Amino acid sequence: MEEKSKEEILAERKQRKAAKQLKKKSSNKVVNESHVKDKIKGNLEENLDKMKISQCDNDALKTSNESMSVNPDLMTHFLDNDKKFNFSSNNTSFNNETSSNISISNKECGSGIGNGINTFMESVSDNIKTKSQLKSERRAKQEAQRALKTQKKLDEKNVEQFETSKIKVNKLKTKFTHKIPKTVDVHKVLLFSHLYRNSSIEENNILTNINTEIHKAVLKLGVQYKNKVIIGSNARVVALLNTLKQVIADYRTPTEKDFSRGFEKVLGDVMTYLNNCRPVSVSMTNAIKFLKWHLSQLPNNISDREAQIKLREAIDDYIKEQINMAGKAICIMVQKKISQDDVILTFGYSSLIERILIESFQVGIKFRVIIVDAAPLYEGKELLRRLVKSGLNCVYVLLSAVSYIMKEADKVLLGAHALLTNGYVMSRAGSSQIALIARSYNVPVLVCCETHKFSERVQTDAFVHNELGNPEELMKADLWKSNNNLTPLTLMYEVTPSNLVTAVVTELAILPCTSVPVVLRVKPTSSTLS
Amino acid sequence: MNSKTVNEKLHSKTNVEKENIIQAVVVADSFNKTFAPASHCLALLPLVNKKLLDYTLEWLNIAGVNEVIIFCSSHVNEIKQHLSDKVYLSIDIKVLVSEGCYSFGDVMRALDRYAVIRNTFVLLSVDVIGNFNFVPIIEKFKTIQKNDKEISMMTLFKEIGNQRTDLGNNFIVAYNSENRIIHYHVQNSRNLELPLDVVLEQDFVEIRNDLLNPGLAICSDAVPPLFSDNFDFQTINDFIRGMFMNEEIIQSTVYCEILKGNNYVAKVTNWPMYQIVSQDIVRRWTYPIVPDISEKYSYSKNSIYLKNATFSQGCRLGSDIVIGSDTKLKKNVYVHNSIIGCNCLIGNDVIIENSFIFDNVKIDDNSVIRYSVIGHKCHVKKKCVLEKNCILGPLVTLNAESKINNIALISKTSSSSICKLTSFSDGCYVYENSDSEDEEIASLVCEQKIHENNELSSASEWGSSCSVSSSPINLLDDVNIFYNEVIDSLTRGYEDKLKCENLILEINSSRYAYNVTVNEVNYNILRAILSIQMNQEKPTMKEILQHVDSKLKYFTPILRNYIKNEEAQRDCLPAIEDVVFTSDKLKTISPKIIQFLYDKDILSEEIILSWFDDISKNDVHNVKNILIPFIKWLNEAEEESDESD
Amino acid sequence: MPRVKIYQFYLIKTSILNYREVDGSYNVAVAVVNLFKNLVTQEKWNTAKDLINLIKTCGKLLVKELPLQTSAENMIRRMLKIVRDEYTTACHEQEELDIQESLHKIVTSEEEIDDYSKTVAELKDSILDHISEFHMELETSIENITKEAIKHIHTSEIILTIGKSAIVEAFLKEAAKHRKFEVIVCECSPLNYGHNTAISLSQSKIPTTLITDSSIFGIMGRVHKVIIGTHTVMANGGLRAVCGTHSVALAAKYYSVPVIVLAGLYKLSSQYLISHEDKFNQFISPESVLKYSEGILTSLVHVYNPTFDYVPPELVTLFISNAGGHAPSYVYRLLSEMYHQDDNDL
């Protein structure tokens, strides 16, 4: 980035501008896009400022306490709160740190967020433009824009390509407007037809929600989820909780409502919006359940501020206990299982696995790591980068070579997206193959999973509940878009049968997979939650 | 491909028409002594147990080349002898000799005299290692030739990314949409000078610095005469630069081709590159030119290549190891990341790490060798310790229990050269490079740069900025970049006495490029002006004063341009705090600086006074006392002016 | 050894290196057969013994140059077998014409061991005829295998395949002429040969889904048959197939999906798996796994990019060759029919 010369940057800008104009032309719109964009951008900046403000909220609170005249009883109460508050603020910063460790992205963060803002802004401008338009036209245009966007991504620098893309966009547009009814089911695998998200409806939902009072931090988070800037179930839940803290801080109860009732509605809206951006993870669902339970425990006549404090505390405790402490406990447990000169095989990227490996290494155990990676996200590369930086000795292979490399491994450590009640492990697609090959080579498979990812759902295959990846990442669009017989398909998750997993490491104990329902029962929080 | 095409292929290769054959010119000399004393002849320097010349020929053999012309200017007999027992089946090898060549340019001129070039040819030096086929690239060259008759050369660059600073990729190349090079520039600083007119002529310009220049080019038959015409061309780079600088006169163009993916190419220019290329070969980036395919080594996990080696009890092998045929390792030898030649004898309990051991070397018991090169037929006796950058020339015998470090040794028998000899032990002398004054010859890289490397730290950086409540780290970064750019433009402007209006334009463009707010611009401009460094190392007080004064005078137009109102004044005052008050020397002259700004009507009295009140409240930098006289003067001046009203 | 011959071997070598084909075994086989045809016609030899020695010396050289192209080695054995057969038939022409050796004959034929040194009339012609016949057999092998297609693929089945194999493509296309079914192709990263297969199949109007390697297990539960090609069939009935095949076979086993392997008889090798490194696997440039331009990572991390997987015979349900279908346990018998036991060591 640094070495990019001015000229280059300027040239890029020019091209981007050209692309924008092009888009405008293709849609024949008069709405001043840049105006909208500026507005949104301003909002987001304001948003960032607000974040800062919410961090300094403590101090503000203190001063307001000073200026208030209250009876001594209440005063001590407030003082108590202050103490707690200080404590929790420390905690917050700590959490921010951890969340930063957890969250990963394919792109550099800056550009990632930038992209996010861009797409977000685009969707907004779409909304304004298309409100009075026919649905079909909108769809055609969105397709065209998408084509343009991919084109842009492919080679931002190449001016000439824009000329060609212009032609392409026009072509695409005409094509799509002509055969809209046909395009509905082409390029969708029948088995997974329930998982395809109708892009226009989805976009619509996001758009309509902008009009309702969804907190800006949440909007930003949604875009981050959508663009896979924040991935991994731990990172996602920490990001969600931190964002909710801001939402809580900025929430004012409407006059005629209770805090808990009113906020529950806000929470519901937030979750629908986020679910539209990307299906929520089990960890997020559990965290929300937990929050809702706390909401319901609040007394009816509680003041906004007290409620906010209580909820913030609850969230901080959740992050601390369920994620950080649980991770720590798992680290300690797994460390005992890693012996000197072991070869650990792992797949993809899991924040927990990263923590385990780095902490075990720092304790002084000498071992080697084999990182197996696979499409669609190639997250393993990020793990590789981080482990190498910490000084671990790593081997990197793709999933297809795992049969070759498995002989060397002594243990397989896998992360998980969720543990289902029937004992199946839901995790990144490819994990089952690792487990399967590990079994055929008699290598034990340990799945590391905090109990906050345990789910009450039951699932036996990867079809019922899954997410589909972007087919264009698998194969270039021009190779299959025009070919009705060819459909690329990427699954994001899959379930690994419990008989392929040797044991699950949780913060409570090392258990067989089938003990999940027992844990769900015993676990105090979850039992009270349900 | 069916059987027919296979047959056709068999035939087509045997009867290539004379006009269409692809020639390759291999320059078998580097004209420097980088690898002395380990090997005096570059072509015969072993790299992973094979001579460099063999790599080149093996590559050309599978690269679609039909005729290879090897150009030697020294060690001719050795090279000819080496070639005599080699069989390469799809290439004809010719050896041309021209003594008295002292540079690459001389070789090209000699080539012109020999008149052996018939058509487009591949030009490379013997230290270039690669694995790809030239045919598609030459076809590309020929299609360009149809449109542009003046094409003389197509240089090949390998894409290596921005992170590999260790590969010596310190150049910038700019090319247009047809891949024609319009600028080539060896990068010394962060500044890029690009003639504007060159860029404006093009609709599309790509500027890159993530490339490696292996000194490899496809040339038309016009190139050798061009070298003859221009006696100052010494290297390919001279040629490239000469082409686009004197385009009108010479009337020929240079294109480039970026190699991606499986196409590997690198140039063994010095010891660090030797280490890198060795590792790349061992790690199979050069596939199919890897020891197990071309030399029938056996390959096993952790990149270990063995061939008839004998091991005794307790031998341990780390990773990235090549051990040549008939080498014997005695008990408890430990080898890691090293290349060991053929017919070596390694004694008991020897430790070899990160080293290169050539053929027929004998190492006695309990020796330790790290980061060293041990030449042909050396004998390291018992309990020697060689640490960090020891280079033993051929036939050196190292006495028992010697401990050496960062030294090059040669034996008497090999010391025919002019260099002065300092005796080290019997029959063993310290080698000093006779022409080392010209440039420092890079030595072996002795530590793995894991922690200080850019890429990984940047990874962690963005990791942290990924945090959910991300404070505007990116913005800050932009401001910093902006600040650096301002400093750059101002320094250059000050040194080259550019017009301030131009500098303002430059600053404005950087400002928009990094999206910096007005307040930050105001602050950073003054900060930058004040912090431009002086040239002298220990300037006297007076010099500092003069320097600051002249700077401020020079840049007054810029300051006037930006600092127009009271708010801007407030923005820029912290810059004085941050720069002037933090430096002891500048602190003392701070009243002068402020007075200057006041005199030039850049800062107004009220602003200065209110600011002074602010900073004197908690006087962090102890400037109150220094400033008080000035403030007093200012107050008086104000009163005076009041009175005069 | 005449220089000309070495020249030709190297040409084969370089042409293979240039193409870097994984599935070029058919081409290699054809090239080797042509080479030996030339050898038989152009070289001077008097007795079958001379010829056998000649083929063996050439063969050793060739095998040394192409350690991984097992079909070359197979063809050399096959050539030797042809010479031996022709010699035997010529010697015993009057007694019996039956070439095929029965079990009884193998047991009782000890006294027949001959050193092949008799001069036999018209041996050269008959050998050349036999080689041409064999050449024909090679050329029709794909056709013969695809004939079986409709016996194995039924309407509305879902077939999974991996990577790129000319014979699998032909097989599926043949079946598509008669039946309607769907195909799922695994992309087989890092080289992504699956993409070519998917495009080629879809162009023949077969509904094709291209999936990532990571989705194999997830999707296997809905697959009816796995049909794959292979590079080599090992002596025990195991496979040396493109990387990722082992995962596919294991997943198929887990869901009890039959695995059908299409392989011409020229892929039948007398090798066993000893270790991956020992003349079994091929490790190509790591570039496609981790880019060189990724920076310093590449110098700190070991990256492996093997080409082949070993699939044990118990994961294979059926082989289909140009001689029909066989169970993996039958491979040893085919081997003894095709190659002469004296030629196991070249």
Describe, in plain words, how this protein is organized in 3D.
The complex is a heterotrimer of chains A (530), B (645) and C (346). With 530 residues, chain A is an alpha/beta fold. Chain A folds into 3 domains: 2-176, no CATH class; 210-323, Four Helix Bundle (Hemerythrin (Met), subunit A) (Up-down Bundle); 338-529, 3-Layer(aba) Sandwich (Rossmann fold), CATH 3.40.50. In chain A, 61% of the residues lie in helices and 9% in strands. In chain A, helix 2 crosses helix 5 (109-130), helix 9 runs antiparallel to helix 12 and helix 10 runs antiparallel to helix 11. Residues 24-134, 154-184 and 526-530 of chain A have low confidence and may be disordered. Chain B folds into 3 domains: 3-267, Alpha-Beta Complex (Spore Coat Polysaccharide Biosynthesis Protein SpsA, Chain A); 297-466, UDP N-Acetylglucosamine Acyltransferase, domain 1 (3 Solenoid); 473-644, Serine Threonine Protein Phosphatase 5, Tetratricopeptide repeat (Alpha Horseshoe). Chain B is 38% helix and 20% strand. Chain B contains 21 helices and 37 strands. Chain B has a 10-stranded mixed sheet with strand order 16-17-20-23-26-29-32-35-37-36, with no helix packed on it. In chain B, strands 1, 4, 5, 6, 8, 12, 13 and 14 form an 8-stranded mixed sheet that branches. Chain B has a 6-stranded parallel sheet with strand order 18-21-24-27-30-33, with no helix packed on it. Chain C has 346 residues and is an alpha/beta fold. Helices cover 46% and strands 12% of the residues of chain C. Chain C contains 13 helices and 11 strands. In chain C, the strands form 2 sheets. Chain C has a 7-stranded mixed sheet with strand order 3-2-1-4-7-10-11. In chain C, strands 5-6-9 form a 3-stranded antiparallel sheet, covered by helices on one side. In chain C, strand 2 (182-186), helix 9 (193-203) and strand 3 (208-211) form a beta-alpha-beta unit. In chain C, helix 2 (25-42) runs antiparallel to helix 6 (123-146). Chain C is globular and about 65 Å long. Chain C starts with a helix and ends in an 8-residue tail after the last helix. Residues 17-23 of chain C have low confidence and may be disordered. Strand 8 (486-489) of chain A pairs parallel with strand 3 of chain C, so a sheet runs across the interface.
